[in-house]
Amino acid sequence: MQELTISALDGYPLGVSRFPAAGSGEGVVIIAGATGVAQRFYRRFAETAAKLGIETWTFDYRGVGRSAPASLENFRMSYLDWAELDLSAVIEHVAGVHRAPVLMVGHSYGGHAIGLLPRTDQLKKVVTFGTGAGWDGWMPPLERLRVKLLWNVIGPLLVRSTGYLAWKRLGLGEDLPRDLFLQWRRWCQWPRYFFDDPELPDLAERFAQVTTPIRAVNATDDAWAMPASRDAFMAAYKNAPVELETVEPRDWKLKKIGHIGYFRPEAAALWELNLRWLTDGRQNVSAAAIPVTVNTNAAQNT
After folding, report:
1. Strand locations in the chain, DSSP E?
2. Is the pLDDT at 283 greater than 70, yes or no?
3. Is the CATH number of domain 2-133+202-296 3.40.50.880?
4. Hey, which end of the chain has fewer CB within 10 Å, N or C?
């Protein structure tokens, strides 16, 4: 692994990691992570892909992990910056280093980011894990109550006392900037997530411009992104070929997957199957005959 620093499109320094592999002629993978999850969490996935001959890059969005400032207090940013300025810069950097196709694995927000990019013509294919619409109405009842408590009580108290969302205190992930928390909470009140935000009237049009093939993988026990939530969000990519893959944990001999377990080592068979799809089956990746439900998303307007 090589650790580097590159500049976002506005010059902000981003911590990036490169996992070299022999060849990589079939493509180079970029992992765009979930909200509040540092790139180190994806290291096992990246190492596995590299061993299979697929060079992989991970990075931290601004405000997170190796891309965080000394203090998040008074750190200003937009949630959209992660895609428009950070991920887009990583894609351009990787595309400049390699002549191979640029592939992407998006976790949760990473699946949102595709439609927020200034351009997507550099992306050949994308697999998303756990991407959904964010609205608590898509969640199971108990999780809905927990999320309402986070948005309306715990989160505001933490932000007022620290100046940022101190998620580490709750064991929920990396600390997050105040501005990001406020935007996230605002969008999650709507069934169509940020597409219902009157301050962002052009988002549906931007998502409709994406034509990159996408495979959207969601587990039936992912309380934050149930398959119905995924279906609602992925309909925004109405001009892209979208495959919807619903995963039952027991079919993969897993007790649970949840919202984070897609990238835990015990889910390696799931990684390999989807890396095979990303590289059009030309890599030396096993494809175990494990039952999954896959269908093609009909073009719908969100």
Report:
1. 2-7, 13-19, 28-32, 56-59, 102-107, 123-129, 164-165, 176-177, 214-219, 242-247, 293-296
2. no
3. no
4. N
